[in-house]
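Researcher: Next entry in the queue.
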Amino acid sequence: MQLALIGHGAIAKSVFAAMAGGPGGPGGRGGPAITHGLCRPGREPAAAEVFGPGIVIVNAVERLPAAIDLVVDCAGHGGLRDHGEAALRRGMDVLTVSIGALADPALAQRLTTAAELGQAKLHLASGAIGGLDALAAAAEGGLSRVVYTGRKPPAAWRGSAAEEVLDLDNPPPEPVRHFRGDAGEAARRYPKNANVAAAVALAGVGFADTTVELWADPGVERTSHVVEADGSFGRLRFEVEGLPLAGNPRSSALAAMSVVAHIRRLAAPIRR
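Model: Structure for this entry, 272 residues:
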């Protein structure tokens, strides 16, 4: 199984390091192996520095060999927008953690059409949250309520729409909810923080019917994700307190791990 990796940031580095140490890595046999890196034009030297010798760096999907089985998006929403459609049209499956990008109906439709034309699949990694299999199963019986609540320390919301309603230079002494709305609005207003909300929406009742609350909480040190749902199955609640990825406090360590786990699951003879 030959893989191409989009991006060369913290998540890409973590995925590459994990896969390089596996059965398909250098010195190993069989299993998935990253053979190519895909980056923006002009970024080839930076990508080559991350991946090292033995990995071919290209700047367009069209330059990937037909033997590529899976294109793995680790570059954020822009990576999926720039390369996802072309890869799917070529018949290459795509795996992404940039689920929030699918809140754009036009992009979602283009990717769907490309996948159908190329007879390929767009796979969604679970990212920084868990329990989505239970939520998806519950949705089959009908869900009456799905709420996702995200909490971060105030400083972790810098660079986001939270700055429109909060003075993050003088953080509040108590938890403050700075957003409440549906998952679609959350994905549009908080593109760098929307992937978990989008994953919950797609597993459950969709963007419009998933309620999202975002909090700046000086009492937490870790990012907290809580999903609550009610339906004909009963009630569920699960929570993840995530640590950031080494080298990038804005990225979740679990998000990178979910990409590696999904790759191994796709390559396994028995899939759970």
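Model: The first helix runs from residue 10 to 20.
Researcher: Noted, moving on.
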